[in-house]
Structures are given as C-alpha cells and as structure tokens.
Amino acid sequence: MKITRIRSVAVHGPRTRAFGGVDRTALGPHAVSEHSIVFVETDAGITGFGEVCSVFKRRGRMLQVDLDLALAPAMLGEDPMRIAHVVRKLDAALDGSEEAKAGIEMALWDIKGKALGVPVYELLGGLVRERIPLSYSIPFGEPEEMAELAAKRVAAGHRTVKVKVGSDSATRDIEAVRRVRAAVGPEIRVRVDGNMGWPNAKHAIAVIREMERHDLELVEQPLPAHDLDGMAEIRRAIAAPLMADESIRTPLDAMRVVKAGAADIANVYVTEAGGLLNASRIFAICEAAGMPCMIGSMPEFGIGTAAQIHLGLAMTNLGPDSDTCGVLYHAEDLLARKLRIENGFAYPPEGPGLGVEIDMAVLDRWHAAACTAEAARAG
Q1: How far apart are CA 273 and CA 248, in angstroms?
Q2: Looking at the 3D structure of the chain, how many domains does it have?
Q3: Chunked in runs of 10, what are the mean pLDDT values of the chain (379 residues)?
Q4: Structure pTM?
Q5: The domain containing residue 150 runs over which residues?
Q6: Does residue 127 share a domain with residue 113?
Q7: How many CA atoms, within 13 angstroms, populate the side-chain half-sphere of residue 343?
C-alpha cells in the first residue's frame, strides 16, 4: 500500500461560551478552535483521517502551511503501515511542528486499523481498561461563575474538575478554588492548572499553599515550560503532587523532567508529542521512572479526541483522570456519529481504525468560517 495524496482542510470550530463570553485561560482567549483536518489517501482506496490542533501561538493556518509545503510532499509514495519509519521521515523533513506531524501520523493509524480490521487501541497493545474517567476544565471567570459551572459538570457525572488559575489576580484565583471546592463538596477531586501563568517559583509556592487549604488533587504547570529548576523547587515546597504539562512535549522532554525531579505526574498530548507513537513512548519513559501519566487536550474535535481515547485505553501507566473530552468544549462536532462520552467517562469508538466518520456538511461550514476569518485578517 502506498500514500498517493495528503490533503488538509483549515477549519474554525466554535467553542462553547461558559460565562457568556470568550473562554479565557492563562494562555489567552479562545473563541474558536483553529485546526486543520487531514485526509491521507492510498492506492488501496483506504483514506485515513487526522487532526492538526494547537492552543499555542503557532496554530491554524501556520501549522497547515507546515503540513502542506514541508511534510506532505515527503510522505508521497510511502507505505502507511510503516508508521515508525514514516514518523522518522516526518522528523527529517521538518524540525518542530509536532502538531502538524501528529495530524498525518494520526491518519496513518486510522489507515492501518482499517486495513487490518481492528481499532487503533488494538495496535497500541490492546485494552487495559474499558473506559477513561474524565476531568473537566473550568476557564477564567468570576469565582461564583466558575463554581456554578463546576457544580454543573459534577451533576453531569464528572468526578474531577480542573480550575484554571494563573490569572493576573492571585486573590481571584484563590477565591475561585475556594468557591469551587465549596460548590462540589469534599468527594470531588479539584485540581488547578496554571498554564505557565505564574512568574517564578516563589510566587507560585505562596499561592499554591493558600489553595492547598481547599484539598487540591494536584497542581499543573505553574511555570514556563523551560523552567525545570523552578518546577523542581515548587515540587519540593508543596504538599500536592506537581504535574508537568507544557514542559513535556517530546520523549526527550520527558527524560529531562524525570532527571530534574521537576514533576510527580506527566500530562501527555497526542498532538504535542507528534502523534500516538511518541505519546506512547512518553508513557513508557514515565512508567519506567515511576511517574504516572494522564492525557491532555488542546481541546480537539472528534478525530483528535478519538485518537486520545484509543491511547488511554491501551496505556498501562494511565493515572489521574484525563482530559480526553475535547468535543465537550465545542458548540458542535464534525463527526457523523458522535463519540460516546457520558457520565464523566469516555468510551471506545466503534469500528476499525479510529472509528470515526466526518460530517462533510459541518466540515464545509467550518472551512468557510476559516476562509472568512483569513480574508478578514488580510484586509
């Protein structure tokens, strides 16, 4: 089997608006998800689906250009069943742009699963669990609004909520955690995510110690990704487990975090890692180091979320509740058959490969929205 064509479609999928406005975190505002959908076609008539997604500064059209101009031409004629070989060729074709590489690699797993008639989780080692427990993230808002949303998600079945902190007001962040804990009660796990928003370890430690009065499950990425010394200092100073997120993008990053003693837990992304293969390698490195992992979200649409679910179903080192529910942060999704996400759990997609089919009417509408936005930016 050979790859004959790789096509990408830019899309803008509208986000839900938790408090009537644009969702905000320490990474900034996000009214839409600026992603691309990838179609990898083969001479066997099998087409694989992938998704390119990011919440960082390089996203949307910029990643699509990387895919179209640098990565896709290098893949033509390759055997999509040789995933490790193709991943190595993607790395040779372009440094960085892991999210764009992940979109292609995701489609290869979809093709291989379809060709063999098995779901992707079987290719990753088979089921370790029947479903994945989910965390739900609470964006910036007034503390009472954040508490109300947390209570609604608990009523919908979530047993873990993640409070986004790292805003320009430590007082508001602490009050948000206090109100969320009061709203959800003592049995629900409450974690906080700084999204690299705090300036230094001293500041972060002081704020986290105040938050720990409200029984934190864990603290996620309080400092910039590169500051492993600061992360290690925080880890030594707080009682709650510390989770590395943006500090771990690649398997090499995971090794550096382990060596620095900069985290107790790793948050692993399919897209940041460059795909399922590298994400599974990060899981293995962390397992060897005695560090449990969870799976993080950009948040993805249904294709990317399906890939995350397959990964989580097959990894032996999955620990805290994961974020494999990106579709819940969007006003609608582009899958013809929706993923089964209910009562705080994500379940295996049905069918071979990723087990997803695209609703082309939604794709066309979202592509038109992306084209309109690009035209407006161009003036």
Answers
A1: 8
A2: 2
A3: 96 86 70 92 98 77 89 96 97 93 97 98 97 96 95 96 94 97 98 95 97 98 97 98 96 97 98 96 98 96 97 97 95 94 96 97 94 82
A4: 0.94
A5: 123-346
A6: no
A7: 2
